[in-house]
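User: My collaborator sent over this chain with a note saying "see what the structure looks like." That's all I know about it. Can you take a look?
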Amino acid sequence: MFIELMKCAEMDEQLALDPIDRQILQILQRDASLPVREISKKADVPPWSCRRRLERLEAAGVIKRRIALLDPKKLGLKLTAFVSVEVADHESATLADFTAKIAAMSEVMELYRLAGDADYGLRVAVPDMAAFDAFYRRLVTLAPLKRVTSRIALETIKSETAFPLFAMAEGAHGPLEPRHESKIRGAGAVAQFAAEVELFAK
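Assistant: Without extra context I'll predict from the sequence alone. Here is the result:
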């Protein structure tokens, strides 16, 4: 199980995330099936605080949903293609209809509107070249297109679903690291607990 987070650029606009929030999200991104008590242990925060934070993150839309992450190759989806599309007609109604039709195609895993020499970028998952050819033939009938460029992935070097939450925070706030139990024992742990109580008492 893993969680789908809001787009990186949108997260801080919706909710200010402190290091504890980021630690909890980091844990969930690796295994969203963990119970709250286990998450709280890994994040080294009280279970009630962990639960309150999770509720806040879900209510704010930072955690969009919790879903299962499947292996495409074991499902027979062995071919990944990246398709760039340049449309011939930029009329708003035409583009809206075109993107709606592309988004409805089950082979399309991701669809982006781009800046640069292409209007749209697609990531496509299909079983083989014959299936991709059938997809391509359907794609080019959806609207007048100026150019379609396809690139076939030969090897997956990295495929990650977890956002780099602590790296995101470094630029704005200086170096941030995941919280470790050894760093917050003793007086530090008492101060952290007091801060938690004050935070959620407001």
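A starting point for your reply to your collaborator: The chain is about 45% helix and 20% strand.
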